[in-house]
């Protein structure tokens, strides 16, 4: 059931612009996620969802479920990439939100 | 040598040029006007009471709770810790002006020598380190109790955060805190201002949202949800987690800058900590 939900979610994320790397191995997916998460952290905009997903991915990998592990790592990466987009967008637009009158 | 100095001046000018237009007092006045227009029946000093400025029912419950304040134990413990000498015979009173009594309004401030914002909690640990004592954890226990005691001795004093005109780094720290407050973060894509400026006074589940004004007046706080007394930075972390942003460390530079901005916004309001909140 969880796999079905994740597959559906992966499809949605892919449709929203996130590139899913389900054809590569878990190690690659994990490394890509960590790189994206490091960039989000550097920008001070990391999401807790990425942290949880990468933890779940590691757990799935340890249990031998590589398909699930890759899906979760990919999702962690997409969340981190969205966090980076958010960080860049906010750096350019936060001033618009300031109460100034 | 003169050339190097000249280049440094130019470099600093470029680095801080973005902040040249910043005007903290205009920001504060704009926020005061905003809330006074939105809530014409709420007196300015009432904002120090957070959501209880808006919610009459919650205010009644809060006033009843204040008959036997749940933070009282923290004040008593804090006083004891405060007056317990360090191994070298000195104490906290030796680190702060006026013996550390009634001085919370002096924090946070921009320390020119360090080039950073110094909060009261940071100063407590600086005091310990200067006296060869180990730093205390920032989120619970002894340091929070000491902070509660020092707040208690400062009740009624007016917040009057200064941002030095002659030090562009102070203005940069203020601007960084302001940027944090107005920037969306986390998966839920919320800025602090979304809840506490745009939606202040509105209901969020069973709670009413407090306003930006007054958010820095009453710390540390006994929060029923925590079942404990905690600092402003603990609340910052909780807010981050609520919008699914990875929280920063308590007393991180970013959070100290945020406290600097928030405290400046509360200039002119009375300190009333420690306090209790839902």
Outline the secondary-structure elements.
The complex is a heterodimer of chains A (101) and B (278).
Chain A: H1 2-15, H2 26-42, H3 48-62, H4 66-93
Helix pairs in contact in A: 1-4, 2-3, 2-4, 3-4
Chain B: H1 2-15, H2 24-38, H3 56-65, H4 72-83, E1 109-111, E2 116-118, H5 120-130, H6 142-152, H7 168-182, H8 192-198, E3 203-204, E4 207-208, E5 221-223, E6 228-230, H9 232-242, H10 253-265, E7 275-277
Parallel strand pairs in B: 5-7
Antiparallel strand pairs in B: 1-2, 3-4, 5-6
Helix pairs in contact in B: 4-6, 5-6, 7-10
What are the defining features of this structure?
heterodimer; A: 101 residues; elongated; B: 278 residues; Cytochrome Bc1 Complex, Chain D, domain 2; two-stranded antiparallel sheet; 7 strands; globular
Provide a descriptive summary of the structure in words.
Helices cover 73% and strands 0% of the residues of chain A. By secondary structure, chain A is mainly α. Chain A has one domain (2-94). In chain A, helix 1 packs parallel to helix 4 and helix 2 (26-42) packs antiparallel against helix 3. The longest helix of chain A is centred in the C-terminal third of the chain and has 28 residues, at 66-93. The radius of gyration of chain A is 15 Å and the shape is elongated. Chain A starts with a helix and ends in an 8-residue tail after the last helix. Chain B is mainly alpha-helical and 278 residues long. Chain B folds into two domains: 19-69 and 164-277, Cytochrome Bc1 Complex, Chain D, domain 2 (Orthogonal Bundle), CATH 1.10.760.10; 72-152, Cytochrome Bc1 Complex, Chain D, domain 2 (Orthogonal Bundle), CATH 1.10.760. Chain B has a three-stranded mixed β-sheet. In chain B, strand 5 and strand 6 (228-230) form a beta hairpin. In chain B, helix 7 crosses helix 10.
**Mean pLDDT, all residues of chain A:** 86
Count of structural domains of chain B:
2
Into which percent range does the helicity of residues of chain A fall?
A: over 70%
End-to-end CA span of chain A:
52 Å
CATH topology title of the largest domain in chain B = Cytochrome Bc1 Complex, Chain D, domain 2
Write the element-wise H/E pattern of chain A from the N-terminal end onward: HHHH
The largest sheet of chain A, given as strand count, sense and whether it forms a barrel, is: none
Using only C-alpha atoms, the radius of gyration of chain B works out to 19 Å
- DSSP strand (E) fraction of chain A? under 5%
Q: Return the domain count of chain A.
A: 1
Specify the CATH class of the largest domain in chain B. Mainly Alpha
Q: Going across the major beta sheet of chain B, what is the strand order? A: 6-5-7
Number of helices of chain B: 10
What's the multimeric state? heterodimer
In one word, what is the shape of chain B?
globular
Which pair of protein chains has the largest interface, and what are the residue counts? A-B, 20 and 24 residues
- Give the helix/strand class of chain A: mainly alpha
Report strand % of chain B: 5-15%
Q: What Rg of chain A is obtained from the alpha carbons, in whole angstroms?
A: 15 Å
């Amino acid at each position: 059931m969880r796999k079905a939900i994740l597959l559906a979610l992966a499809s949605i994320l892919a449709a929203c612009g996130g590139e899913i790397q389900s054809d590569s191995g878990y190690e690659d997916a994990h490394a890509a996620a960590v790189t994206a998460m490091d960039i989000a952290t550097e920008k001070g905009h990391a999401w807790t969802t990425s942290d949880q997903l990468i933890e779940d991915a590691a757990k799935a990998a340890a249990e031998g479920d590589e398909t699930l592990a890759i899906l979760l790592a990919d999702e962690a990466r997409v969340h981190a990439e969205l966090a980076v987009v958010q960080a860049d967008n906010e750096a350019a637009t936060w001033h618009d939100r300031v109460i100034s009158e | 040598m003169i050339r190097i100095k000249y280049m440094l001046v130019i470099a600093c000018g470029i680095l801080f040029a973005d902040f040249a237009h910043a005007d903290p007092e205009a920001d504060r006045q704009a926020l005061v006007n905003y809330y006074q227009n939105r809530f014409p029946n709420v007196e300015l000093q009432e904002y120090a009471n957070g959501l209880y400025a808006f919610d009459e029912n919650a205010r009644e419950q809060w006033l009843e709770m204040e008959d036997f304040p749940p933070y009282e134990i923290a004040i008593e413990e804090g006083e004891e810790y405060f007056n317990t000498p360090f191994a070298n015979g000195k104490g906290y009173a030796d680190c702060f002006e006026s013996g550390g009594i009634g001085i919370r309004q002096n924090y946070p401030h921009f320390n020119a020598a360090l080039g950073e914002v110094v909060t009261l909690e940071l100063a407590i640990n600086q005091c310990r380190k200067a006296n060869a004592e180990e730093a205390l954890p920032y989120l619970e226990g002894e340091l929070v109790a000491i902070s509660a005691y020092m707040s208690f001795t400062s009740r009624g004093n007016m917040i009057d955060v200064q941002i030095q005109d002659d030090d562009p780094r102070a203005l940069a720290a203020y601007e960084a805190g302001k940027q944090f407050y107005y920037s969306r973060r986390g998966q839920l894509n919320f800025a602090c201002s979304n809840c506490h400026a745009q939606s202040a006074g509105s209901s969020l589940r069973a709670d009413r949202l407090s306003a930006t004004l007054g958010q820095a007046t009453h710390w540390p706080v006994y929060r029923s949800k925590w079942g404990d007394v905690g600092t402003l930075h603990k609340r910052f972390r909780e807010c981050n987690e609520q919008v699914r942003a990875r929280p920063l460390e308590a007393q991180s530079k970013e959070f100290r800058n945020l406290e600097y901005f928030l405290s400046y916004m509360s200039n002119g309001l009375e300190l009333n900590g420690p306090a209790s909140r839902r």
